[in-house]
Amino acid sequence: MIPRYLVDVDLNELPQVHTEVMVIGAGIAGLFTALKASEQYKVLMVTKKSLLDSNTRYAQGGIAAVISDEDSPDYHRQDTLIAGAGLCLPAAVDVLVHEGPAGVNDLIRMGTQFDLENGVFALTKEGAHSQRRILHAHGDATGAEIVRALSEKTKQNPNIEVWDDHFVIDLITEDGECAGALIQKPDGQKVIVKANATILCTGGAGQLYRYTTNPDIATADGIAIAYRAGALIQDVEFVQFHPTALCYPGAPRFLVSEAVRGEGAILRNIKGERFMERYHHQLELAPRDIVARAIVDEMEQTKSTFVYLDFTHESEETVKHRFPTIYEFCLSYGLDLSSDWIPVAPAAHYMMGGVKTDLYGETEVRRLFACGEVSSTGVHGANRLASNSLSEAIVFGRRIIERIQQLPPMERLHFKVEHRHKTEPARQPIVEKKLKLQKIMLRYVGLKRTAKGLQKGYDELSRQLPIFEASLTKREDYEFANLLTCALLTTQAALIREESRGGHYREDFPESRDIWKKHTVFSRELGITEGHFDV
User: Fold this and answer.
1) What digits encode the pLDDT tens for the residues 132-189?
2) pLDDT digits (tens, 9 = 90+) for 309-329
3) Which residues are the active-site residues?
4) Beta bridge pairs of residue 152
5) What span, in angstroms and rounded, lies between the C-alpha atoms of 369 and 362?
6) Pathway of this protein (predicted)?
7) Half-sphere exposure (Cβ direction) of 4: Cα atoms closer than 13 Å
8) Which of 69, 85, 316, 485 has the most CB within a 10 Å radius?
9) For residue 467, how many other CB atoms are within 10 A of its CB?
10) All domains of the chain in start order, with CATH
């Protein structure tokens, strides 16, 4: 059983800080929501690194919204539902496609500069989209531009206080209501922050896997602390592996945007053969899960660790203009995107599931909200449509603030303390524990799964459970405990779901089954090994 709190402290003895709205995390979800909240409230932003460190910063492709006269919300809705493989919540998708354009206008008003061609937005098309509806910035640096604009606004805003380099250990709850959080300062001191509303914007869980496009900070913190606090965790078996991450000696798993394939790049195996026609009629623009598994199949058949992405049909000038970031990064490793075939392989990229929310971002725990990748709003279903993640963050960020406006003032709470005896077991270095966890997840809970492998993975992960009986004091301790929590939930959910759908593929159940058109939902009170289902 995962404990309610990671550390054993008397909450009544710690110093306390009060704020109206607390935003945990940065990225587009945290920055945008904090700025919207600051129009009416005093906001405290808590980041474990800085405003500039998040998955958003690395988002290349862009943000999906209905802008063109040739496009419509109905088209965007249909594309999202098809990609989501039967598990999207239609009402949430309707919210996204109808409110996305207004959210984009908010970003522009906040200073984001999207690329223009002849005075109009330069829209591109990505995999599984039927229309050109992706706005981008500086070619392939959309996320970095959004973070730049929003972080500048945040720093200038007198209603937003930012605590960089602070770690949220746990949420504090009383009778099913969130009262704030227990936070560790850079010097190791602990403090209570009480807030009328708390918004989780902590991003994803890419560090569950050995190979990921995510930064080091993506350690599933939000999912784990929300789970411990009593929120519901939904659909975490659906992990999206981006098909094309750079796979080259000495280089990190740098994302090579789907937009490159959107502009005509093709995939070849190490024999030089184009292969996607054997897998899907949309070829390189098939949904990500299909492309990723096709690449793995080709790698297994040719006994290779990568395939090639071939963009050499485009001129050097066009490549440099459209994908300057990718071009420069590859060039720094001696690879020329315009003349070389680029070695790529799948890497963990995005978690479709997360903390279950309603259509206003509120969780099962009153006054606790979740926004962005940490949340499970129902938009993404079993497989996220490319570039819908940034849209989701701004659309539901706006709705969260609407809901907060309706909250009554929080009554004075008297904290109850859970006391537990902490042991100090012989400790294997956390870095070794983390690497072992990542290897287990890659081997047994990766792109292809089986009951035998998942059970073995779950059993091996369970051997790490004594970490929760240890005295935890450091950030890396908390991060590992959070990763382990999410890894166990993800593995258990994958074991329960006896079918293949979207980002979840079972070799022993290769087909989708109508009886599984339902969500896996976990609650700490039910125990980590028990899932229940919402039809």
Assistant:
1) 999 999 877 888 899 999 999 999 999 999 999 999 999 999 989 999 999 999 999 9
2) 999 999 999 999 989 989 999
3) 288
4) none
5) 4
6) Cofactor biosynthesis; NAD(+) biosynthesis; iminoaspartate from L-aspartate (oxidase route): step 1/1
7) 14
8) 485
9) 18
10) 20-238+350-404 (3.50.50.60), 244-348 (3.90.700.10), 430-530 (1.20.58.100)
